[in-house]
């Protein structure tokens, strides 16, 4: 994971119909720990991490870095969206020089099934398209992760390839930049 690149960070909080995308704050710490400790969240992304380890390791203000948005519903964190540069050593690329912007999403299980991840991801992609309009965005998910696969399709990602990684089939997709017409 490398820096996102020439973008102004942090942007002003982004408001959607129901949500706010913003920088992490100290009050989000418990939700960060919950996200990484949740067996449900971890099912397709390497499993949960021990809560006591997280309690020791997570800083007072967690996750503050370019490309990481906390998703806030009525003042409380329900998940996060990330836009990072994809490591060149990993399989799955659409540019010869690699380092593509890659979307990630993780929401607390009680916030699944309401369209919040879709709403927040669309807003983050909109922000990225304004900042770096010519760049595609890629996404990699376990093919068995039905919710993630449905979300990727809804957001306009299309399959580039599938490959084996971490002992499972991975789906790798791209969302091309919208080219202005006329
Ligand atoms: C992947 C993940 C973010 C998807 O969350 P999600 O809530 O299913 O995704 P969406 O925001 O697209 O919500 C879709 C659901 O909301 C429902 N919904 C309810 N109200 C809605 C509304 N107002 N607008 C849109 N959808 C709505 C949809 O019908 C759909 O339900 P269904 O899945 O039962 O068909 C979530 O499962 C997660 O955090 N997983 C763990 C982390 C992970 O695996 N991340 C992927 C790493 S690559």
TrEMBL record:
> Coiled-coil ranges per the record?
none
Q: Where are the transmembrane segments?
A: none
What sequence ranges are listed for the domain N-acetyltransferase?
Answer: 19-179
The family database entries (Gene3D superfamilies) matched by this protein are listed as: 3.40.630.30
Q: Which GO terms describe its molecular function?
A: acyltransferase activity, transferring groups other than amino-acyl groups
Q: Which Pfam families match?
A: Acetyltransf_3
**Top-level taxonomic group:** Bacteria
Q: Which PROSITE patterns does the record match to this protein?
A: GNAT
Q: Which PANTHER family does this one have?
A: GNAT FAMILY, PUTATIVE (AFU_ORTHOLOGUE AFUA_3G00765)-RELATED-RELATED, N-ACETYLTRANSFERASE DOMAIN-CONTAINING PROTEIN
Protein name stated in the entry: GNAT family N-acetyltransferase
Which species is this record about?
Answer: Streptomyces telluris
């Amino acid at each position: 994971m490398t820096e996102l690149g020439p973008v102004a960070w942090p942007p002003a909080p982004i408001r959607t119909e129901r949500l706010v995308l913003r920088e992490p704050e100290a009050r989000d710490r418990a939700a960060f720990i919950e996200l990484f400790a949740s067996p449900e969240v971890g099912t397709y992304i390497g499993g949960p991490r021990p809560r006591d380890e997280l309690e020791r390791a997570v800083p007072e203000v967690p996750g503050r870095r370019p490309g990481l948005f906390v998703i806030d519903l009525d003042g409380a964190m329900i998940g996060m969206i990330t836009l990072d540069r994809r490591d060149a050593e990993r399989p799955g690329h659409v540019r010869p020089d690699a380092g593509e912007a890659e979307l990630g999403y993780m929401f607390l299980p009680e916030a699944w099934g309401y369209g919040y991840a879709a709403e927040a991801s669309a807003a983050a992609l909109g922000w990225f398209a304004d900042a770096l309009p010519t760049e595609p965005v890629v996404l990699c998910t376990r093919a068995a992760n039905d919710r993630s696969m449905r979300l990727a399709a809804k957001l306009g990602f299309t399959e580039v390839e599938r490959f084996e990684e971490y002992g499972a089939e991975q789906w790798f997709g791209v969302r091309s930049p919208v080219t202005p017409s006329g």
